[in-house]
Amino acid sequence: DIQMTQSPSTLSASVGDRVTITCRASQSISRWLAWYQQKPGKAPNLLISKASSLESGVPSRFSGSGSGTEFTLTISSLQPDDFATYYCQHYNSYSYTFGQGTKLEIK
Amino acid sequence: EVQLVESGGGLVQPGGSLRLSCAASGFTVSSNYMSWVRQAPGKGLEWVSVIYSGGSTYYADSVKGRFTISRHNSKNTLYLQMNSLRAEDTAVYYCARVDILTGSTFDYWGQGTLVTVSS
Question: Do B44 and A101 touch (CB under 8 A)?
Fold first, then answer.
């Protein structure tokens, strides 16, 4: 099974900061990587698919990159609404795997 | 507008059973791929099961043999039958639509329903 590992687990940042979250796969997954945002008590929301394709309605300050085993989610200028938990996710052979999550906190 | 509304959660004793429902609107369940994802209290997301438009079903190892995913086409509803429940099955259960173009991401989610397994 392919394992997905996110870092850091927790990230403290301020409004206006540029932040990057990393997701590493235990083996190459090409560009089959998605990112979700989840706020407390709410369902996750799909931000990015296929490593770098921004979903409709997602602000352009979010971007994704990477291929193979290393991927990043970047928020170019943090807004108050961005403080949440972020998950990466991969699909392979009829199975879906999430990273353990990165909690983005206000510094 | 796509909507997914889960129901059926609650408190159940270890070893018991529960059936979750997910009523869909704005699209046809049987023409899409549908999945269940759960989240234990304070923990991350865990994929549980998927049913493809052709009817094939797949499960996470943690629930294989105990959970069954199904759908009712005329009711446009997805189900998750959960048997032999364990304390570690305690979680919020979300139904989610899988993006049919790639089959790889969850593009719409319900609000979730809480299942608590405890004596």
Answer: yes
Interface test mutation site (partner A, options B3, B22, B33, B45, max chain A beta carbons within 10 A): B45
Q: What is the pLDDT along chain B (119 residues), one digit of tens a residue?
A: 999 999 999 999 999 999 999 999 999 999 999 999 999 999 999 999 999 999 999 999 999 999 999 999 999 999 999 999 999 999 999 999 999 888 899 999 999 999 999 99
Residues 6+ apart with CB under 8 A from A12: A105, A106, A107
Which DSSP state fits A68? T
Per residue, the 3-state secondary structure of chain A, as one string, reads CCCEEEECCEEEECCCCCEEEEEEECCCCCCCEEEEEECCCCCCEEEEECCCEECCCCCCCEEEEEECCEEEEEECCCCHHHCCEEEEEEEECCEEEECCCEEEEEC
